Amino acid sequence: MVSIIWFRQDLRLSDNPALHAAVARMKSCGGKLLAVYIDDQKWPKASVAGAASRCWLHHSLLALDHSLNGRLLVCSGDPAKILAELAEQTGADSVYWNRCYEPWQVQRDKQIKAKFKQRNIACQSFNGSLLWEPWQVLKKDQTPYKVFTPFYRRGCLSAQVPREPLPAVDLNQDQLLDISKLTRSSIDQLKLLPEHNWADDMLARWQNTAGELQIGENAAKQRLATFLNQGLAGYKQGRDFPSQSSVSRLSPHLHFGEISANQVWYAATDKVLADSGADTLQSDLDHFHSELAWREFSYYLLYHFPEIPTENFQKKFNNFQWKANEAYLLAWKKGQTGIPIIDAGMRELWQTGYMHNRVRMLVGSFLVKNLLQPWQEGASWFFDCLVDADLASNSASWQWVAGSGADAAPYFRIFNPVTQAAKFDANGEYIRRYVPEIAALPNKYLFDPSNAPDDILQQANIKLGKDYPFAIVDLKASRERALAKFKDLGSAIER
Ligand SMILES: Cc1cc2nc3c(=O)[nH]c(=O)nc-3n(C[C@H](O)[C@H](O)[C@H](O)COP(=O)(O)OP(=O)(O)OC[C@H]3O[C@@H](n4cnc5c(N)ncnc54)[C@H](O)[C@@H]3O)c2cc1C
């Protein structure tokens, strides 16, 4: 008897409910397990993972295959067809997977279940990535929440406590089906890595001091341990400062399911309990939990409102007249806007595949409000460049920044990137790391070189327009312009 375990966004062996169930069945009924990963070629084009996250996926699959002693069957094509063929070839009578929440994956999985039912192949799906299932948290009138705080406080926290993590399964080579006679691709054949080696530098940022790439389940556990020891205490304050190591950087690991939200949630809770739960630590923990809940909220919104990756959540934004401008967009993408904190963020994104959350909000606000470019342009660039590119979090966050989302930032919240930089990068460490050409400027002018006096620029040996661009827009004037345009839309937000 063969059971298929279909790995998707759950590339781990511990706290993997589908794998756990498949192994339990194998142990009680005998038989073997066939571990499969399928590069789904039928995803809608706009949602195919971007270049940076495909690099991550390549290495994450290598790590999973290693944990499975080289017995991960990797295929490419239509999952419905491939799974049916595999069931036929191996005589598998059951398929297990953990649920995904992207709209087309939900649709596809439903169809696969229905087809397999007709053929007497049992399909079982599990919750392996969310703390609360989106359909379990509803308002009293049984409609979905649209505002984060009641969703989390009234909905999630008063629902059942999240499932406790399951232990790693005990699997030996003999329990995994020999895949040598099955048609398969190698991980290399999936061509997840780019043809040119631009990704080498980016991936180098994810190595440890011994030069080992920190991708995969073990690396995720290591990252979590480092965060619990070095970042959690002081998280609430420190998480806003991009040069500090207060945030967890777990987002790519969570996206690919190298670690589960449940593991992270409970490990943080246990850490605070073990450290005797000092009041400040408790509030750091609460804050960290609420950030995990923003991830939940994003998935919740995507599940209930599957159009959010492309369409304004608030329909009144459909009338908004963006001012598409290729030159602005290019300057933003390349980190050449002349506003140092924006350029630092966009270069961090390009060089590392990651950007600190505070800076994501700043570059987003700048693009959408000061430059009046459509949020979809920003979302698509992020999707291509982030190693943690995640349809739910990216779409919900961009709509939040634009003001068009559920519970979004109000239109009048237009971050001033100069004062924000002075506040959150006060000693300029982050800016100097990513915008080294202006490093010699004193802090007073580092955040806004376009307004630095000539003698200061000369002393720092900087010629604006040559060494570093003049600001592409006047912050005050562009803010006024945005306020006027957004105001026309009215401010009502559905609750
Ligand atoms: C414009 C914009 C685009 C974004 N795109 C993505 C994306 O594609 N993928 C992605 O994972 N996150 C996205 N975020 C959310 C957030 O910036 C990242 O999750 C966070 O910066 C990841 O860093 P971390 O793991 O160190 O976070 P931590 O502060 O350590 O938080 C722990 C975890 O909580 C979750 N989380 C934290 N903040 C948020 C948030 N605001 N929304 C949703 N989840 C959150 C993440 O899973 C994160 O790993 C975006 C935010 C903005 C403003």
Plain-language structure description:
Strands 3-2-1-4-5 form a five-stranded parallel sheet, with helices on both faces. It folds into three domains: 2-128, 3-Layer(aba) Sandwich (Rossmann fold), CATH 3.40.50.620; 192-304, Serine Threonine Protein Phosphatase 5, Tetratricopeptide repeat (Alpha Horseshoe), CATH 1.25.40.80; 315-487, Orthogonal Bundle (DNA Cyclobutane Dipyrimidine Photolyase, subunit A, domain 3), CATH 1.10.579.10. It is α/β, with parallel strands linked by helices. 47% of the residues lie in helices and 7% in strands. It contains 21 helices and five strands. It binds flavin-adenine dinucleotide. It is an enzyme of class 4 (lyase). It comes from Pelagibaculum spongiae. This is Deoxyribodipyrimidine photo-lyase. FAD binds at residues 235, 288, 388-390.
Question: Key features?
Answer:
alpha/beta; Rossmann fold; Serine Threonine Protein Phosphatase 5, Tetratricopeptide repeat; DNA Cyclobutane Dipyrimidine Photolyase, subunit A, domain 3; five-stranded parallel β-sheet; 21 helices; 7% strand; binds flavin-adenine dinucleotide
In short:
The protein is α/β, with parallel strands linked by helices and 495 residues long.
The largest sheet is: 5 strands, parallel
- List low-confidence stretches: none
Number of helices: 21
Order of SSEs, N→C? EHEHEHEHEHHHHHHHHHHHHHHHHH
Query: Strand sequence of the main sheet, in spatial order?
Result: 3-2-1-4-5
Shape: globular
Total domain modules: 3
CATH class division of the largest domain: Mainly Alpha
Strand segment tally = 5
What is the terminal-to-terminal distance? Answer: 52 Å
Going by CATH, what is the homologous superfamily of the largest domain?
DNA Cyclobutane Dipyrimidine Photolyase, subunit A, domain 3
Query: How much strand content do the residues show?
Result: 5-15%
Q: Which structural class should the secondary elements be placed in?
A: alpha/beta
Helix content: 40-55%
Mean pLDDT across every amino acid position:
94
What is the oligomer described by this structure?
single chain
CATH architecture of the largest domain: Orthogonal Bundle
